[in-house]
Give the backbone structure.
Amino acid sequence: VAGGGGRMPEFAAALASALTVSAIIDAAIAGISAYGANSLILVAERDGQLKVAASIGLDDDSVDALSGLTSRLPAPISVAIQWSAPVYISSPTILAEDFPHLADRLEDSPAKAWVALPVRDSRGQVGACLFGFGEAHEFPAEEKAQLFAASALLALSLERARMHEFQGALAAELQRGVLPRGQLTASGLTIATRYQTATSGVEIGGDFYDVVQLADGRVALVIGDVEGHNLIAASLMGRLRTTVHAYAREGHGPAAVMARANQWLADLNVQDPDPALFATCCFVVVNPATRELAICRAGHPPALVMPPGGRPRGLDCEAGVPPRRE
């Protein structure tokens, strides 16, 4: 454990760069050996209950015995949480004295000494971090300080990773909610779509697409992008998609739909001038019966046509300017 303090910055950096729970566990596996430990248990509050958030180097029965979460009998972790005080167990003999009901259950444990440390999350909820050591030994003051620092780092890093994963799931669900659901269909056409985000993590894209069946048998194909990768961009994207859809159903041509969408964005600026987001859009009306199309681009990349067996080519159309909130 003498090298534990020296490797604290390295351990902290590894935890800081870990964005998922699995990455935190990987960093912990590599890091606890610097403190002389061979096993680890993290207990944290989740859904209103204390639960084992992660464990390393121990079987399920040992984790259950040391945590005491499923028993009314005391255990190192439950005592540390209850009294908000560290519990040091320097050998199996001390374990048998302090927790006699656990001696048999932990007889074959790879750890022969343990320390359970109370930790608090960002909301002040008390959890615990337990380190197990392969040999019996005492815990000098310097080592105690190192282990306290390591336990706090682990607990906060795990909380951050769980929040990151939750926000990512929330972002993905929001993204799905503002895009068309299910298979898009239109008379005379086969529609296929694929949505692939350009970023990873919790960022939300402002890209949108839609298919609108028009009254005269024609079909409007829409694709666009709102500036930004956040909740504001996603919200505006959903509203802009609905606006373009509504103008198309009124029977306006591509240029008129883009002009009205542009005015809609400009009017939003009067109502809510901050932030000033802009959007690009490509609007194509296809007549399946005549194989004719009309297209209007507002700052968006050109649409492509790919004939059977041929090479894709861009449709010649002036790009115009993005619809903007001015």
